[in-house]
Every structure is written in structure tokens, then in C-alpha cells.
Amino acid sequence: MNGRTATAPTYLAKLGVTEGSIDVISGNVFEAVPSGADAIVMKYFISAWNDDDARIILKNCRAALPPHGKIILLQAFVPDLDDPKTAPDGIMPGLFAVQIMVSVPGGAWRTRQQFKTLFEECGFKLEKTVDTGTNLSAMEFGLA
Hints:
18% strand; globular
């Protein structure tokens, strides 16, 4: 474990997660993603990267997943022009887009369609979208 993951076991224990039930693995997603998982969950992660970097990460994820594998994307989405600008919980996801652009140079907050296109370019297909009634929604992608 490196410095970024060293505190994870203590944090997980505080949450009541049984020791040994989760493997915390450090790595560099631009080189490879550890294999062996049935799903990869990304929460606000891929938005930190521009499209070219995101494609590298997603292709490495695809290589790590088994044929039945999934990526679960948990995200607030920039609304399309005809979408409501405020989420059901009152949050304005478009403001997140501005925040990510300022705090993470090169990052890109995307619309649902932009995420779908990005994932399709990397060998995934959208299987399900789940709206939670908050600004956070989910997209489930399987291998194409």
C-alpha cells in the first residue's frame, strides 16, 4: 500500500467492514487495472480526466474485466440543453462542471450522452441508467 491507500483499512474498520473482506490495491490506472473483479465502481473519478486520458483508463479497465464484467459509473451529469438544470435534490450539476474545470485542470464533466459515447469508444455498452432522486445517478456498462 502506498500513502494514498495506507489509511483505507482503518477507515473500513470504522465503517464496520470485516477485516480481510476487501483488498485495497494501489496502482496506476494509466498502466493497468488489477484483474479479478466482476465490477469496477467509479464515483466522480473519470471526470478528473480529459477524453484522451479517460480512454486510456477505460481501455485498461476493459482489459481487466471478465466477459461478464461491468463498470458502474456514479456521477452527477451536466444537463443536456433540454434537460432540467436542477436535480431533484436542488443541486445544480452544471455548477459541478465549473468546479471540476477549475480544481482539476484537464478534467471534463460530461452529459449522459457524452459518457455513453466515451464508454462505447472503449468497448463498453450502456446497459442501465438509474436516477436516484438526487444529483447522483448511475450508469451501468457491460462489455460490448
